[in-house]
Write a structure and sequence with these properties.
The protein has 13 helices and 16 strands. It is 44% helix and 22% strand. By secondary structure, the protein is α+β, with helices and mostly antiparallel strands. The strands form six sheets. It has a four-stranded antiparallel β-sheet with strand order 6-5-7-8, with no helix packed on it. The chain has a four-stranded antiparallel β-sheet with strand order 12-11-13-14.
């Protein structure tokens, strides 16, 4: 039953997102007078559908995608026979490049709007969690930039520019950071100290490559929330609710200490001491080359909820939506730099289904659907020929240079792009199965 609920949530979420994505293509195509021959949610074989006007609306048997077939366009069908004659007024290829570009970006735009609406609605309905400054009772953890400013691990931030700190994130408030002669008031070893805010702090933040925090973060006690299948933590027998209290006999009280200990033992076996419901358990695991074990943590500092009106929720939801794209850009950059493993970072449908979980939770469902909508937009924007971004790249080439690539070039590029996508799909499926087995 658990797996059926996972699969049902995955299919429902993908059907919604793919339908909206393809709707974006179809509506913009029809707006510019192009003939849409087929609108399909799911891939062939055809299960059922109905032809209305010039368009055959259908559902395919493979519910992991969809497509819109527009007359006069080289697409996934590779049907080039219809392109042999002279362009007809209703065909994609007969329209100006700027109209074709809007059609190709239509699905991406709809997915971005969908992501923004979902996150805005979630913020409006459920509010936004934040950490009260009083909860950061264990002080801060610093990175290199924080230490340059003058922070030390364990410092407690009391004020920013003479204003008592209420929410921990107020430390990063741009208005505070840009204030003339600004300063942080901290408590260190029971004594108050003043740390001047550097005038160029925003420039230094933009250049900061340490992604663990902007410059400080709250010291965070933690427990295990989820153990990822097939990863070292799962093989070592870790369970949700466990607390890691020591690594190789060295006490671990906070998450940053846990991370530092693992980073120091990349690729090596470690001895873990766990607290499981008051019982001490010893186990061992081999740290991955990225310095990870494969767990998701549950922070143990108490969060509070800030409520928003509808108009207030929109900018907050927009920021959350684009934060998903920023995170994906950073993740891909790490993979390309060799700092992260593709097998650990990328998931296919099985991995996504596991994220939904075996219990239906509307908040979790819509949060994941919002994230997937932004991921779908980001992935489709990549300049791979079989994706929207590839078509858009060729159209920009045409608009800039004043000539379009040949139909044969577009056909061959589409084939190459499809091979790349099929290879990625095989990798993602195989990776999901491998992690499930091992």
């Amino acid at each position: 039953m658990t797996y059926l609920i996972m699969a049902a949530q995955l299919i429902l979420g993908l059907t919604l997102l793919v339908g909206l994505h393809e709707l974006g293509h179809m509506l913009t195509a029809k707006w510019f007078g192009m003939r849409v021959e087929r609108f399909s949610i799911g891939f062939p074989p055809r299960l059922f559908g109905k032809k209305i006007g010039e368009t055959d609306y259908q559902f395919g048997a493979i519910p992991l995608g969809g497509y819109v077939k527009i007359s006069g366009m080289v697409d996934e069908s590779l049907d080039t026979e219809a392109l042999q004659g002279e362009p007809q007024p209703w065909e994609f290829r007969a329209k100006p490049a700027w109209q074709r570009l809007i059609v190709m970006l239509g699905g991406i735009i709809v997915n971005v709007i969908t992501g923004i609406l979902i996150f805005s609605a979630l913020v409006w309905t459920y509010g936004e969690s934040y950490l009260p400054a009083s909860e950061a009772r264990y002080g801060v953890v610093t990175n290199a930039l924080g230490r340059e400013i003058g922070f030390q691990d364990g410092d407690k931030v009391l004020e920013v520019n003479g204003k008592p700190l209420e929410a921990f994130d107020d430390i990063y408030d741009p208005d505070a950071l840009l204030a003339r002669d600004g300063a942080f008031i901290i408590e260190r070893n029971g004594q108050r100290r003043e740390l001047p805010i550097p005038a160029n702090i925003l420039d230094r933040l933009s250049q900061n490559r340490d992604e663990a925090a902007l410059f400080v973060a709250p010291a965070q006690p933690f427990s295990v929330e989820r153990v990822l299948t097939g990863r070292p933590a799962a093989k070592a027998g870790l369970q949700p609710g466990d607390r890691v209290t020591a690594i190789d006999g060295k006490p671990v009280a906070f998450f940053h200490q846990f991370q530092q200990a693992l980073q120091a033992r990349k690729g090596e076996p470690v001895q873990l001491t766990l607290d499981r419901a008051g019982q001490t358990i010893q186990t061992s695991a081999t740290v991955e080359k990225e310095g990870t074990l494969g767990i998701q943590i549950k922070p143990m500092l108490h969060l509070e909820t800030r409520q928003y009106g509808f108009l207030e929720a929109v900018p907050v939801g927009t920021k959350k939506a684009f934060g998903v794209i920023t995170a994906n850009v950073k993740a891909f950059s790490k993979i390309f730099r060799g700092e992260a493993s593709a097998s650990n970072s990328l998931s296919g449908p099985i991995g996504i289904a596991r994220e939904f979980g075996g219990v239906f939770d509307w908040l979790k469902f819509w949060n994941l659907v919002g994230m997937l909508s932004m991921v779908l937009a980001f992935m489709n924007l990549l300049p791979i020929p079989a994706l929207d971004g590839g078509h858009a790249a060729f159209l920009l080439y045409e608009m800039i240079l004043g000539r379009k690539p040949s139909e044969s070039f577009l056909e061959n590029a589409q084939k190459v792009g499809m091979v790349l996508l099929l290879g990625l799909m095989v990798f993602a499926f195989g990776n999901d199965i491998y992690k499930g087995m091992f």
